[in-house]
Structure prediction request, 194 residues.
Amino acid sequence: MAETPSNPMQHSPPDEIVWEQVERAEERWFIAMVVMLTVMMVVVVVTGVTHALQPPSNVEIVDPTTLHLGGEFAESNLGTAAERNGSVTVRMIADEYAFVPDCVEVPIGTAVKFRLTSTDVIHGFLLPDTNVNTMVVPGFVSEVRTKFSRPGVYNMPCNEYCGGGHHGMWARVHVLPKERFPQLTALERKSCAK
Ligand code: CUA
Prediction:
């Protein structure tokens, strides 16, 4: 051998390639790939059928152009409201690029129902470390129920890209001790937005 080629790609293939072996190896990898794809398809279909039969929110429609004129999402109804059965309902509106109100208070260990809608484009509503994660779609009411087990401030980022100000679209949920919540005035209870 006169000189060793510096580029490994320049090696000529060894003389004793057994093409049958190469074909068999390719066949094995092809079968492995088909099996992997089949397993993934089965997982997608099974989880889809068993876990996602219900749409993520109840299908309720609302006219996004008249939200401010009255009804459930009129300004005076936004924020946290205590229900007769002891649970609370939080109503919020998402629009570019804020949640209204951008801070709400709820009691710990209590059934909380969030109801949101959008005035413009699709936004996202996520509370990290909870089961709350839904899209907020104009024309529809997104409803999510949860119960907070630890007090504190939960940041609430919009997690659906909604435009140039998306990264700045945040709100907060303050989870208060159970005895603290009834001490708030009606106005304080509605929202902690500054
Ligand atoms: Cu609103 Cu992203």
Remarks:
- The two ends are 81 Å apart (CA to CA).
- The beta strands are 79-82, 88-95, 98-100, 103-107, 111-118, 123-126, 133-136, 142-147, 152-157, 170-176.
- The pocket of dinuclear copper ion is lined by residues 97, 123, 158, 160-162, 166, 169 (CB under 6 Å).
- The mean pLDDT is 87.
